[in-house]
Amino acid sequence: MSFQKIGFIGLGLIGGSIAKRLKAIHPGLTVIATAGHAGTVSAAFRQGLIANETPCEIRDFYDCDYIFLCAPVLKNIEYLRQLRGNINENCIITDVGSVKGSIHREVQALGLERRFIGGHPMAGSEKTGLSSAKEFLLENAYYIITPTEQSDAHAVEDFRKLVASLGAIPLVLDYELHDYATAAISHLPHVIAYSLVNLVRESDDEKETMKTIAAGGFKDITRIASSSPEMWENICLSNSEPLVALIDAFIERLQQTKTDITHADGTALISAFSAARDYRDSIAISRSGALKQVYEIYIDLIDEAGGIATIATILATNNLSIKNIGIIHNREFEDGVLRLEMYDRESLDTSIALLKRHHYTIYKR
């Protein structure tokens, strides 16, 4: 281990998950942190995650080997300015923001190019905060690394090894390429999800018919609209140029689909839908990222007292933990009335085999 002390500025879902993994594989590592809420710091201290019980001052980070900026994108830039002059000559500052251009430009303006290596772990959840952080959140997720032109090659390699030790897959990219790519596969989908949910909300009737019958397709495409509004405000404003260009391109494509429907051009629709299906099916989703693998099954269940409890007991007695559980009220596009989500592929496969032995009918998506 070439590092002894790591600091975190921000200790939410991503920062907390990185800290948990680092402490698990390096028990002797000293970790310190500050956060927007003092309660987050004290909670992390009680968990044995960090060495300080109250939020650190900026000067406390001076002797860190690495400092992770894990606050919202615009806040990270503010902290970067404060860190200038408060870090030792061997310290590497990194961040976990999903937009790289704005912080790289600030790094250049502050003359910190040799001290900064950008980062973006492409994992996450619609849930936020330290309470949602998990040790294995980054496992098999792409972790984009964006060095500066002055980044030392050895420092970049050391950081790449650190990222790999988290279980993530390091990928070095130019920061401008990163921002355009993530605008397309992450930022634009969130904008679309928020817009679609608001459209349905504004179009629904007084009885909330649309909300009542919302089925799997709508819920799947809008799940990410449950993400933090504040975080996505930061992202949109920080990566506005490529995002606006892609919104324009999306509107143009949507307009073409509208034209095809208006003119009853079935050939054009089939061609467009087929091309989209084939491309979507070619995307490997076994790794975490913008399209995260969901380990879920659907189960036919008789409506009787204790039915759900019986299934939960079968799984629990075999040391299988359920990540999420729900009743499907609208069966359109769905097989099975009970939806179970497991934490990983092994748990999913074991659950399927176990429930089949108990004569349950299982549908796997």
Describe the fold and architecture.
The structure is a single chain. With 365 residues, the chain is α/β, with parallel strands linked by helices. It folds into 3 domains: 171 residues, Rossmann fold; 104 residues, 6-phosphogluconate dehydrogenase C-terminal like domain (6-phosphogluconate dehydrogenase C-terminal fold); 70 residues, 2-Layer Sandwich (VC0802-like), CATH 3.30.2130.10. The chain is 46% helix and 14% strand. The protein has 13 helices and 11 strands. The strands form 3 sheets. It has a 4-stranded parallel beta sheet, with helices on both faces. Strands 9-10-8-11 form a 4-stranded antiparallel beta sheet, covered by helices on one side. The longest helix has 29 residues. The protein is globular and about 65 Å long. The two termini are 42 Å apart. About 3% of the residues have low confidence.
Uncertain runs are 286-291, 330-335
Rg for CA atoms = 23 Å
Total DSSP E strands: 11
Average pLDDT works out at: 89
Q: How many individual domains?
A: 3
What percent of residues adopt helix (DSSP H or I)? Answer: 40-55%
Give the CA-CA distance, first to last residue: 42 Å
Gross CATH architecture of the largest domain: 3-Layer(aba) Sandwich
- Work out the helix count: 13
Summarize the helix and strand pattern as letters.
EHEHEHEHEEHEHHHHHHEHEEHE
CATH class placement of the largest domain: Alpha Beta
CATH superfamily of the largest domain: NAD(P)-binding Rossmann-like Domain
CATH fold-level assignment of the largest domain: Rossmann fold
Strand content: 5-15%
Biggest sheet, spatial arrangement of strands: 2-1-3-4
Helix/strand/pairing category: alpha/beta
Biggest sheet, open or closed, and with what strands and sense? 4 strands, parallel
Taken from the alpha-carbon principal axes, the silhouette is globular
